[in-house]
Structure formats: C-alpha cells, structure tokens
Amino acid sequence: MPRCCRGRQAADRFSKRHEIAPYIGSRENTTDNESLVQPSNQTEKVPKVAVVRPKEEHQTGPRRMGLIPVPRNEQELNVQRMSAIPKQDNHERDMSRFDIDSLRPPPTPPPPPPPPPPTLFEKVIVKPIVPAEITTVKPSTKSLNPSTTVKSYTIAALQQYTNSFSQENLIGGGMLGSVYRAQLPDGKLLAVKKLDKRASSQQKDDEFLDLVNSIDKIRHANVVELMGYCAEHGERLLIYEYCSNGTLQDALHSDDEFKKKLSWNIRIRMALGAARALEYLHEVCEPSIIHRNFKSVNVLLNDELAVHVSDCGLATLISSGSVSQLSGHLLSAYGYGAPEFESGVYTSKSDVYSFGVVMLELLTGRKSHDRTRNRGEQFLVRWAIPQLHDIDALSRMVDPSLNGEYPAKSLSHFADVISRCVQPEPEFRPPMSEVVQDLIQMIQKEPPNRSDGD
C-alpha cells in the first residue's frame, strides 16, 4: 500500500507538471522533486530540437520519443498554422491571378493582326482613285497617240486649213457628217470629215481611237486612205486623201459634160474597182468588214478616174442609236437598201445588193431613186429588173450618153451580173470575188483600140 500510494502521488505530480508546464515561463519552479530533475533537463533539450527541427523532420522524432511536452508545441504550431492560413490564401489568390493573367496572350509583342487591315484599307482607297484619275483625263490625243501611227491634227489647224469650215469648202455631206476641203500650207489637199454628234457622241475617246486604228489598217488601192484624225473639245474628225473628181454620183447625174467622158470601158473599170474594194472588205480583212452604206456618193474618183470607196470601217458608227434607224430609212428611201434591211438584218450580201444598184446607175445613167420620173420608174431596181434579160429592152435602158458605143455581149454580161446581185433573197446573191472575176473577163474581151478614153 505505501508503495502504491507513493507511486500514485508521483504520477499526480507528473501529470500536474505536464498540464502546467506549457504555461510556465521559468524553469526553476518545475523542480519540486529531485527525482524529476532529470526529466526536466531532458525537456529543456528537446524543445530546442523541437523548435528548430519540426520544419525539417516534420516533428516525427520527438513524438516517437514521448519526452517533449507536445501540447505547448502543438498549440504554437496551431497558432502558426492559423496565422499562416490567411497568408497562404492570399498567396494562392495572387498565384491564381498570376496564372490567369499569364494565360492571356501578350498584347504588344506580336502584332500580326493589326498590319493586314491597314494595308487592305489602303488598297481599297487607292484602287478607286486610279480609275477616277484615268476617267478625268482629257481626250486621248496625247495619252493615246502613241498607240496609233495615224497623224493627229489639232482643231485649230483644221480650222485654218478649211477657213473655219466655210461653206465654200463644203464638198459633201451625209448621215455621218459633213466633208470639207482642206488645203495645207504646202498646197496639198485633204478631205476632212466632221462627224455628226449623233454618230460620235456615244463613243468614248479610247473607243474613237480604236476606230481610227481599225480604219488605218484598211489598206487597198480602191479604198480611200485615212491620213489623220482629230479628237479635241468634243469634236471628232477624220482626215482622208482628197479625190479631185468628186463622187460617182456627181459624175453620173450632175455634170453632163463630164459624163460624156465615162465610156463603157471606163464604167466597167469603175465597177471593177468598187467590186475589188468590197471583195477586200468582205473576204480579205480579218474579221470581215461590212460597209453598210455603199452607194454612188461613197464611190470617189481621182484624177485618173480610178475608184476609191469611202466610209470603209464606219459601220460601227452607222449601227449606233438613232443613226442606225436613219441609215436604214435613207438606204431604203434612196433605193440602195436590200429587202432584208427593213427587218434590221444587214450582212455582206446586203453590200452586194447595194453594189448591184450602183452597177445599174453605171448602166442606165439614172439615179437609184428619182422623184421627177413617173411613179413606176422612180425606184431604179423595180423598173430595171424586168428588162435585164430582154435584149431589146436592155438596149433601151442603156445611158444615152454612151451613144450606142458598147459591145452587145459585154452589155448582156454586165446586166447578168446586176441581176444576180439584186436578187431578193440574200443567199442567191454572189460573193464579191465572183463578181470581180466576171468583170475582169469583160475587160479582157474588150477590143484594145477603142476611142473610149481608156
């Protein structure tokens, strides 16, 4: 019993010391008993290790030994943990914020998206400006002149050469415009065709230059040569070589004295020259060119009475707008228009029909349409067709100014070509190359020595 009581008292004192020890700051009050001095010395050494080593050894050694007053150390650790929790939270918030920001792409270093929009925007602005500058450029004499070899004339120079386009220099006119005689300082004569606004206003400057270039490419001995052009102040003019003997229409119907010079052989040669011009336009030029306005007033004569066909290559002007309607009306009204022209169809075979009408003028000396004659004789084709294959009637149709000086076979052959050219159906009309061969054969059969001016 005494031993048990003594052991129980010692245990109580140890437990009280264990409970009070964490709250006692001095080591001297803890030594109530000499038997407990050694354990207190151990507790002094252990806290040094317990304070210094927990973070490195994670507090594993002292707990296993069971010699450290754990409650004090755990409370201090709890206080440290409680004080560390907010810091850790703050740290975690900062880290999380840093992580979110770090995920965002850096705005400044890589700027590939910004450069493309400015460049595209600049292109969009520049492209409209360039055409605007081109369209505002004034007529094409300077900017487009290098694209053509045709000489360019100024309107001031042409006014000087034509005496301001005076009436005394007016030599002809039609639905495309008026033609004036122009005399250069060196004395050379030119024919200036001043295009009517109805015909030229629908063409831009570059389109007019294209027209000039296309006309300049038409080079044939029986086609009027283009010598120059003018495109200033809204005016469009074409300058051609000058044919001193005027038009075939004037030669046949206006000057009786001059008409006497037109022998039968000369008339065949005139028909051949005009036929060769149309053959060249239809069958040699690429693409094929339709004259569209072939008539005796567009058959010009030079000093030697050689034929030069004018208005070649101007079909684009004739077929534009109101001029197209006017041309159809005039050709039909003056007897040159083929029957299909009334329905708006015009082909190379329509030129063949008009050529047949001009041949009738050469044969008869009559106009294609003459209101001064009887009603049944006003339109030349209607009057002549029934008589072309009648020898007696044909001889009465011949121009009286020939005085009967013509071979009968040649006359019959000439009438046969006319009959085929003025067929009502286009498919039955011959090509111009066939007409050329027929006329060549007629000239070859002519007697070499005849006083017909040939």
From TrEMBL:
Residues 165-443 form the Protein kinase domain. Pfam families: PK_Tyr_Ser-Thr (PF07714). PROSITE patterns: PROTEIN_KINASE_DOM. GO terms for cellular component: plasma membrane. It is found in: Cell membrane. The keyword Nucleus does not apply. Residues 1-47, 98-118 are annotated as: Disordered. Residues 32-44 have a biased composition (Polar residues). Its main location: membrane. Keywords: Kinase, Lipoprotein, Membrane, Serine/threonine-protein kinase, Transferase, Transmembrane, Transmembrane helix. It is a lipid-anchor. Residues 104-118 have a biased composition (Pro residues). Residues 9-20 have a biased composition (Basic and acidic residues). GO terms for molecular function: ATP binding; protein serine/threonine kinase activity. InterPro entries: Kinase-like_dom_sf, Prot_kinase_dom, Ser-Thr/Tyr_kinase_cat_dom. This is Protein kinase domain-containing protein.
